[in-house]
C-alpha cells in the first residue's frame, strides 16, 4: 500500500493582481519505507513541494487544487487540528540550516519534550527518557547533559543530529528532509547523510530527500523526481535516471556533474537559467534552454509518458533515442 | 559574570562623572550664590572676602573636586528656597515620582504585551488597524496635552477622577508614603499614570508588534509548526521570549526617559513629586536644587540601565556574561 499519493497537486502564489503557479499538477507516489529524491536547479519548486505536503505553505502561497493522500486521508481537505497532529508525529521535517531551525532561547530538552508532549500523553520525565534514547541513536555523546544546553552551545553538525533525533522522536512514517546538509561543513556532510540513511532503513521510515546533488540522490534514494519550473519532468528509479536519463534537462544535469567531466575539461553547464514564476515559457518550460527544441515545443505542453523505464515529459523522447542510436553507429 | 559586572559598574561611573561635570558647569554659571546669600546691599570688598572664604576664586579643578567630593558624601548643596540640603528636599519628593513612574510602567507592560502580540498575530483585523491608528495619534500628542485633555474629560466633565494631588496617602517608612494603600490614592494616581504612559505605550505596542512579526517569520517558528506545536505555545513560548529580549534593552532606556517626562505630568496634575519641584526650582533659580535634581535623575537613569543590561544578560542564553567581561 502506498504511504503517500500526490495527485495533480497545484500550488499558487497570490500576487498583487494575479496568481502565479509554483507547482503545476504534480503527481507521485511513495510506498511505505521508500526513499525518494527530488532534484532540480534552484527555483524548481522542491521546497514548495515539501511544505505543501505538510500543509505549511506560508502566505501568499496556497494549495490551489489536487490531492495529497497520506495514510488514507487527504491532507488538502484536512482540518487544521487533525493536520497538526500529523506534523512532527506521522510526518516529520528536517530543515536546511540547523543554525536557525532550533529556537535560540529554549534548551534542547525543552524543544524535544514539547514535541513529544504535543502528540502523546506523557510526563516530562518520560518524555526526557525518550529524548535521551533518540539522542543516543544519532550518536550524540552524553545525551543527558545535552538536554540542558542551548543550541548555540553546540556545533552545526551536532545541531543537525539533534534535528534528526527530533524528527525520529515519534516514530514517523515519513521524513521530509530539505537539503539537510547544504548549510553544514563539507567534512561532515557525508556523515549526516549516512546517519539519515541508516536510521531510515533501520526504522523503515519513508524519506523524501530534497537536494540538487545528484550524487547524494544516487546514494540515498530508490526513486527520483526531477523538477523543472514547478513540474515533474522526469521520474523513475534512481538508477535508471542516473544511468539512462531521457529528458534533455536531466541529461544536462548529469553531464554537468564533475565526475562526467574529464580532467582539464570545463564543466558542461546547461545554458540559460530557470525561468521565474512570472515568466514561464509557453509549451515546454524548458524549450528556451533545450538543444532538441522543435516548433511544437513552444506551443504544446508535453504529456508525461512512460519511456525506457522512466516517466518523462518531453515531445522528443523518441528522437533523442534515435539520435543516440545514430551517434553510436557513427 | 563578575568581570562583566565590574565592567558595567565602571561604565556607570564614567557616565556619572560626565553628569557631575555638567552639574558643576551649571552650578558655576547659573545665578550668583552671593546675591542669594547676602542680597545687593553689601559692598564689593566684603563680597570679594566672602568669595575667597567660599572658595569661589579657587581654580576650576579645585572647585570641581570640592563639588564632586561633597557630592560623593551626599552633599549636593543647600537649597536657597527651602534652606535645607538639596538632596533631602529631593529624597522627600522622590517616592511620589517613583510611584507615578511605577504606575505608568505597570500600565505600559500590562497593555503593550497583549496588544502588541495581538496586532502581530492578526495584523489585518479591524481591531488591529484601529490600534495602530490610535498609536500613531498617541505618539504624536504631547504628554501635557494628553494630561490636560484627560483632566478636562474625566475630572471636569464627568467628575470621575480627582484632577490634582496625591489624595490619601499612607506612610510606609522613611520618606516613602504610598498611593497604593487606599482607594482614594488609587483614584488620584490613575490619571497621571495614564498620562505619563500615553507617550511610551504606543511606542512599546509598535515595537513589540514589529519584533513579534519578524520573529513569526523566522525559521524556528516555521520549524515549531512543522513539529505540530500548538499555536498558543508557538506565540507565547517560542516567539514572545525572542520578541521581548530586544524590547528589554529599549525598555530600560525608556523608563529612564520617563522620569524626565514626569516634569510635565506632575506639573499638570500638581503632583508633589520631584518633577514638579524641579520646575519650581527653575522658576526660583534655586541652582543647588536644579543641579541636585539633574544628578539624582542621571543616577536613576544610569542605575536602571545597568540593571536592565544585567537582566538582559541573565535571561538571554546566547549572551555569555563571563565572556563579555573579557
Ligand atoms: N513567498 C513567495 N512568493 C512568491 N514566490 C515564491 C515565494 N516563495 C517561493 N517562491 C518561488 O517559488 C519558486 C519555487 O521555490 P522553491 O523554494 O520551491 O525552490 P527550490 O526548488 O526549493 O529552490 P532552492 O534549490 O533554491 O531551494 C521559486 O521561483 C521562488 O521564487
Ligand atoms: S519538449 Fe521540446 S523543448 Fe521540451 S525538453 Fe523536450 S525537446 Fe526540449
Ligand atoms: Mg529549497
Automatic annotation (TrEMBL), chain A:
It comes from the Bacteria. Pfam families: ABC_tran, oligo_HPY. The keyword ATP-binding applies. PANTHER family: DIPEPTIDE TRANSPORT ATP-BINDING PROTEIN DPPD (PTHR43297:SF2), OLIGOPEPTIDE TRANSPORT ATP-BINDING PROTEIN APPD (PTHR43297). GO terms for cellular component: plasma membrane. GO terms for molecular function: ATP binding; ATP hydrolysis activity. Belongs to the ABC transporter superfamily. InterPro entries: AAA+_ATPase (IPR003593), ABC_Ni/Peptide_Import (IPR050388), ABC_transporter-like_ATP-bd (IPR003439), ABC_transporter-like_CS (IPR017871), Oligopep_ABC_C (IPR013563), P-loop_NTPase (IPR027417). Residues 6-254 form the ABC transporter domain. NCBIfam families: oligo_HPY. It is a peripheral membrane protein. Its main location: membrane. PROSITE patterns: ABC_TRANSPORTER_1 (PS00211), ABC_TRANSPORTER_2 (PS50893). GO terms for biological process: peptide transport; transmembrane transport. This is ABC transporter ATP-binding protein. It is found in: Cell inner membrane. CDD domains: ABC_NikE_OppD_transporters. Keywords: ATP-binding, Cell membrane, Membrane, Nucleotide-binding, Transport. It comes from Parasedimentitalea maritima.
TrEMBL record, chain B:
The chain crosses the membrane at residues 9-26, 100-121, 133-156, 185-205, 243-264, 290-315. It comes from the Bacteria. CDD domains: TM_PBP2. It is found in: Cell membrane. It is a multi-pass membrane protein. Keywords: Cell membrane, Membrane, Transmembrane, Transmembrane helix, Transport. One of its GO terms (biological process) is transmembrane transport. Residues 94-312 form the ABC transmembrane type-1 domain. GO terms for cellular component: plasma membrane. It holds the Pfam family BPD_transp_1. InterPro entries: BPD_transp_1_N, MetI-like, MetI-like_sf. PANTHER family: ABC TRANSPORTER PERMEASE PROTEIN (PTHR43163:SF2), DIPEPTIDE TRANSPORT SYSTEM PERMEASE PROTEIN DPPB-RELATED (PTHR43163). Belongs to the binding-protein-dependent transport system permease family. This is ABC transporter permease subunit. The lineage of its organism: Bacteria, Pseudomonadati, Pseudomonadota, Alphaproteobacteria, Rhodobacterales.
